[in-house]
Amino acid sequence: MASPIYTTIFKRNSVFVTSVFLGAFGFSMGFDLATSAWWDAHNRGKQWKDIRARYMEQEE
Length: 60
What we know:
By secondary structure, this protein is mainly α. The protein has a single domain, classed as Single alpha-helices involved in coiled-coils or other helix-helix interfaces. It has helices spanning 2-10, 13-42, 48-59. The longest helix is centred in the middle third of the chain and has 30 residues, at 13-42. The relative contact order is 0.06.
């Protein structure tokens, strides 16, 4: 099992560095989406995007 991983990822430094950067990018995208979803669920009704319609109707 270690041999295929070594030959595909760790043998060449350029492939290893690329896989590290792609993994970090993917993790950051997933983490950002998860934390944003949690924040929106936790603060539902308190954010500007939730109450904007009430204030826009009053001005008109």
